[in-house]
Specification:
Blueprint: E1 8-15, H1 45-54, E2 60-61, E3 71-75, E4 78-85, E5 101-107, E6 112-119, H2 123-128, H3 131-138, E7 149-153, E8 161-162, E9 167-171, H4 177-199, H5 220-225, E10 229-235, H6 236-243, E11 262-270, H7 274-281, H8 283-291, E12 297-305
């Protein structure tokens, strides 16, 4: 087992699943008129009203499919899209440690039609900025595809823009970074899963699986030499060049030492594979990790040393880190 008291470790869990099949509609379709909204079996009147806000031209909502967890939406005899609750597909904790449940509508091409908040318990949106701040943030999503890569930046005051690398940057909410990142990840993850499940679009290739029978004892240096552990060193010069100013302009971050050359020394590794995870964690901890991992979940271990930690000072388990993001190409 490898250990280093100077390292902090954070495990990120990503769930990559392949879904197939289409929606199962109500066996007996109610009578549909083009000028009147046909009621159907919904959870409650509030959700029905919100779905009508997202799909104002809808004349019929089929009952929620127990297999796909979506409400098919129709205009006369033409299916226009689907509505669904995010909690049926993903449950990401926000700043308060509770989930944000969203009602999301997408059309048949995977375009987001609208988003409404069904439940949230974020202090900043309950008592600070108020729920309107979260609603304004979510108003940026309609018109965008579920397949778009969206990055939230709470330091920006500009409109939606592109990074030039196939990503969009959305305005965040000052003082609510963790909450809006949780909302963003909740919305996009749930919407993409529905698009794959009921539209048959944006389907992933068959997921790769780690070779569980491949193992040989390797020490830390051997793991690095074989590139089984990745290494990312952030130097003082790199950071000052990117910021356009000296680090001494940022007090209380550990940058006061003029001889400091390394800001953060980061290592990362894919822990599911025994040749990596078992060598890093040891037999018992690796076995415990596998026991707590659901089918289809992939674990990335991240470790760092240096004056600038990738975990903020108030980080706690279950919270979304604001200083580090991982993206799948």
């Amino acid at each position: 087992m490898l250990s280093n008291n100077n390292y902090k470790q954070l495990l990120f869990t990503f769930v990559f699943c392949l879904f197939t099949g289409g929606p199962v509609l109500a066996e007996e379709a109610p009578d549909m008129g083009t000028n009147s909204f046909t009621k159907s079996t919904l959870v409650n009147g509030r959700i029905e009203g919100l779905i009508k806000e997202i799909f104002p031209n809808a004349t019929r909502i089929d009952k929620k499919d127990p297999k796909t967890h979506v409400w098919p939406i129709y205009v006369a005899f033409q299916q226009e899209g689907y509505a669904f609750e995010s909690k049926d597909f993903i449950q990401i904790q926000g700043f308060a440690g509770d989930i944000i449940n969203l009602l999301i509508g997408i059309d048949n091409e995977g375009q987001i039609m609208g988003v409404r908040v069904l439940f949230q318990h974020e202090p900043i949106f309950m008592h600070g900025l108020g729920p309107q701040a979260l609603e304004k943030f979510l108003d940026q999503y309609p018109g965008h595809s579920v397949s778009e890569r969206i990055i939230v930046d709470s330091s920006r005051s500009r409109s939606v823009s592109s990074t030039g690398e196939g990503s969009l940057i959305f305005d965040g909410v000052t003082k609510a970074t963790v909450s809006v990142i949780a909302a963003n990840d909740t919305l996009l993850t749930a919407a993409l899963e529905v698009a794959r499940k009921v539209l048959g679009k944006f389907v992933q290739d068959t997921a790769s699986l780690p070779k569980m029978d491949l193992f040989e004892p390797l020490n830390w240096q051997q793991l690095l030499d074989k590139k089984l552990v990745g290494h990312w060193l952030v130097s003082r010069e790199q950071l000052e060049t990117a910021l356009g100013r000296e680090l001494t302009d940022y007090p209380n971050h550990g940058f006061d030492d003029p001889d400091l050359t390394v800001v953060s020394d980061i290592y990362y590794a894919y822990l599911n594979a025994p040749i990596i995870g078992r060598n890093l964690l040891g037999e018992q901890d690796y076995a415990r990790l596998l026991e707590s991992t659901k089918p289809g979940e992939h674990i990335i271990g991240v470790m760092s040393t240096g004056p600038y930690d990738y975990l903020e000072d108030d980080f706690r388990p279950g919270k979304i880190p604001t200083r580090l993001s991982l993206y799948q190409n």
